[in-house]
Amino acid sequence: MTEEPKLDISASDVTGQTMVNIGINAGDREMSVGELLDGLVPRMKLPRLGNGGRPLTYHARLEREGRHLHATETVGEALQSNDRLMIQPTIEAGGHRR
Amino acid sequence: MNTRQTHQFVMVLQKRDGSPLDQVTVAADWEPALEAARFQAMRRFPDAAIGANAVAEIRPAWHEELGQPYIGAVEVALEVPGAGAVSCWVPKSFFKSLASDASVPLVKEGALRAGELFNYLVTAFPNPPEANGVAQRRERFQIEEVPTPLPVKVSLLGDFYARAVAAGEQNEEDIPVFLLRRILAESDQMTRDAGAVETASVLIGHMHRDRAGGELFLEVTAQIPARNTEATATKVSFGPATWNAVQSALALRSGNEQWLGWFHSYPASSWCSAKCTPEDRAKCLLQRSFFSADDCDVHRTVFSKAFHIALLVTNTDAGLQHAMFSWRDGVIVQRGFHILGNEGKQESAIAPVATATIGDTENEKTCP
After folding, report:
1. pLDDT at position B343
2. Confidence band (pLDDT; 50, 70, 90) for B60?
3. Which among B83, B217, B242, B343 counts the fewest CB atoms within 10 Å?
4. Domains in chain B: how many in total?
5. Are residues B303 and B223 in the same domain?
6. What percent of chain B has pLDDT over 70?
């Protein structure tokens, strides 16, 4: 039996000015994209909470397919070695609240 | 870059008369402070690579009058092997939003009235030695930061100054920012065209290093309107469609321009009640320039590099008001900038720079 190799991918923020290499252990390919994002966001120095403790939302865009991964997809099925992800927030700026 | 934190920080909340309210352990987001030190090293050591072997230490700077354990600032000391060391002094205002969050339960409990002012002090105590024998949580993946130095053009800063006029108060700690007059005019037009809703764009351009003195500075060359945003009178939402559109536009331009910041507008005239007299409207907080707590979130989440800027145009009854913001020592501050394309002449068509508040909620009150 051949042991599955580690899955090596990379990720960047939307500006492309922060980049990381990620090595996913072979035994953790069943991890969901949502779980990967949960672990990745703080380690990319991105905030998890906004003002007043509101959770911030992030999406992972798979550059190879030009699509956003669904949080329930598994890493092993969605990703290939050398894939690049872009971690994108959905966030609001704005003035006074009525 | 490795980080070490020598102390844990505890915030002491007090009423204005000095009576105690609460103590909370500080769970600070140190990244803007670390980024400030990183950028300071980049400014000072042009040839240094700030990689995994650089070490940043977060440590207290004791309060000059109160002494230990009270802090007056936090020092982020960054050692770059082969280059040298820099220190960034993070002011106590870094903790202001945390103090605001910590006051929320006090208002709910009735210990503070809504809107009541209070004081906060920050104390620091040595971190306990790491416990032996504590099982480390198994990480499901390993992560390694890839150094991504921004392309830097070599130019003469003096040439830029000669073609520009200053707008707003300049601070020597800030790197100079040059904005084409055309971009400011576009932002004004976008603000007017948006009418009663907010509008936004991403500012792009180049970082330069002065051939003479070695200082870094920014040149904003264009803006990419954030067309895929959802905008209302009081908010503008950025999502994946926005970011993808900006990436595509940047690739099409193929000018090696970088994300330098963002612009957004406030339709303040539309926020004010038509029932108010012109005199009351002129005094209304909603007519003043402010960078909201949500704006701070956008800046921290997307524009977290120490050089990133934010341009705000507020459409008031008195006309358009400009304000620019950026990071300074890990805190978002208002700052000055330079307008390129005036050939040294003061341009009356440029709207004035307004003094703004940052991260406060006083502007978020409902209009009567």
Report:
1. 56
2. very high
3. B343
4. 2
5. yes
6. 92
Inter-chain touch A86–B243, beta carbons under 8 Å? yes
Greatest pairwise CA separation for chain A in angstroms: 63
Angle of CA points B206, B211, B216, to nearest 5°: 45
A1 domain-assigned: no
Provide the pLDDT for residue B281: 82
Rounded distance between C-alpha atoms, residue B356 and residue B353, angstroms: 9
What distance in Å separates the CA atoms of residue B91 and residue B51, rounded to the nearest whole number?
26
Domain membership of residue B92 as a residue range: 2-126
Q: Cβ–Cβ of B140/A20 closer than 8 Å?
A: no
Residues B101 and B197 occupy one common structural domain: no
Q: Which of residues 267-326 of B touch A (CB under 8 A)?
A: 268, 271, 286, 290, 292-298, 300-305
In this predicted model, what pLDDT tens digit does every residue of A4-18 receive, in sequence order?
788 999 999 999 999
Give the ipTM.
0.93
Q: Is A15 on the interface with B (CB under 8 A)?
A: yes
Point out the residue among A15, A40, A90 whose CB comes nearest to the CB of B239.
A90
Residues B45 and B188 in one domain: no
pLDDT digits (tens, 9 = 90+) for B211-240: 999 999 999 999 999 877 777 777 888 999
**Chain B residues 240-259 with a CB less than 8 Å from chain A:** 240, 243-244, 246-247, 258-259
Place of tokens 């890990």: B330
Q: Is B33 exposed, middle or buried (0-12, 13-18, 19+ CB in 10 A)?
A: buried
Q: What is the pLDDT of residue B348?
A: 47
Instruction: Supply B119's token pair.
Output: 């004081």
Interface of B with A in 1-40 (CB under 8 A): 29, 31
